[in-house]
Amino acid sequence: MKKIMETIVVEGRDDVTAVKAAVDAELIIVNGFAVRKRTTLEKIRVAQERTGVIVFTDPDFAGEKIRKTIEDYVPGVKHAYIGRKDGTRARDGNVGIENAKPEVIIEALAKAKCKMVDRIENFTSGDMIEYGLSGGGESKVRRQEVGVILGIGYANAKQFLSKLNHFGISREEFLKAIEKVDKK
Known about the structure:
Helix content is 47%, strand content 10%. β5, α3 and β6 form a beta-alpha-beta unit. The strands form two sheets. The protein has a five-stranded mixed β-sheet with strand order 4-2-5-6-7. Strands 1-3 form a two-stranded parallel ribbon. The protein is globular, with a radius of gyration of 16 Å. The longest helix is centred in the first third of the chain and has 13 residues. The protein contains eight helices and seven strands; from the N terminus they run ββαββαβαβαβαααα. The chain has two domains: 115 residues, Rossmann fold, CATH 3.40.50; 67 residues, no CATH class. It is α/β, with parallel strands linked by helices. One of its GO terms (biological process) is rRNA processing. It comes from Propionigenium maris DSM 9537. Its EC number is 3.1.26.8.
């Protein structure tokens, strides 16, 4: 079993069970929007100073809000993402880290990225249109697939463009992901 040196931040107890089944790591549970408590954010800040932090929240709106809250309070944390498909339980449609297979969790943690301090504009809205990530009928699906490959998660077109630039994705890395999606 792989040992993760950073502390992993998850939303709830079921997420802990899923992550612990995949890797050996220390975890902090934020209990959803209770992440806003100063004591929780301080615990994350201290973990960032000591070991580094990987934020690993559900691939949904609430998960993104929790990420933003943590990123605003503790800049420099890494982010790991799974795709909605990998986090959705078939029998009832529940979406969460707790539904992901161990190999999906390991891959997501291996791809964890931190936001770049200096914003680098490598990508434009023109790139989004040119590569079918914006303005087309299949754009949403393509963003989901490319987001999983790059390890940056899903977002609408504007937010996806921001993630490409904030996470310092290289043009080469981006084009390889586009190529993989096009081969499907």
